[in-house]
Write a structure and sequence with these properties.
single chain; 181 residues; alpha+beta; eight-stranded mixed beta sheet; globular
């Protein structure tokens, strides 16, 4: 599946994206705040593409102007989610490379994935979370219509031995429809 917005193409990750992925994922400002370790090499990024980023509904965030990936976004449905959801609900996760922070690209991608989730996949509710201190992610969620739901303490993440505080928000299909009238 390929999704398109004004400035972006959301498409599956490809092995040939490994160098671009590494360029952004090696930055310590990106992964740890999102709960995953910094990539250590192009080969490490290639492995991540073959495992984590090959999951269903996981997309490279590609700039139309360059045709190169600058971030990632995923919609994890049901049990694939990190928060244990029924099959009628999904969780969105995302990140973008530092040079592209503050340009509204991730909100653009998130809004498209919400639309896809509700209209095409017939989801009833979509969730999203951010770890304490990730104010940029919090702002994305507010811009995209998510409403705060709860906070969880001592949440494990992909960084071995690290427990975080996660703030969880959600949006129902009805709320999304009301917001987009």
């Amino acid at each position: 599946m390929i999704l398109e917005t004004k400035r972006l193409i959301l498409r599956p990750w490809q092995q040939c994206d490994a160098e671009e992925l590494y360029k952004y994922a090696k930055d310590p400002q990106v992964g740890p705040i999102a709960g995953w370790p910094v990539h250590t090499s192009v080969e490490n990024s290639r492995d991540i593409i073959g495992t984590v980023l090959s999951a269903p509904q996981t997309y490279a965030v590609v700039l139309k102007t360059t045709d190169l990936p600058v971030g990632s976004i995923a919609l994890m449905i049901g049990e694939r989610s990190n928060i244990g959801l029924p099959d009628t609900e999904g969780e969105i996760g995302y990140w973008i490379g530092v040079p592209y922070w503050g340009q509204g690209l991730i909100p653009e991608a998130v809004k498209k994935l919400i639309e896809y989730g509700f209209e095409e996949l017939k989801l009833e509710k979509i969730w999203c979370g951010y770890f304490d201190g990730n104010e940029k992610s919090k702002r994305v969620q507010i811009k995209c219509g998510f409403r705060y739901h709860h906070t969880q303490e001592n949440v494990p993440c992909a960084i071995a031995g690290l427990l975080r505080t996660e703030h969880i928000s959600c949006i129902t299909k009805e709320q999304w429809l009301d917001d987009n009238k």
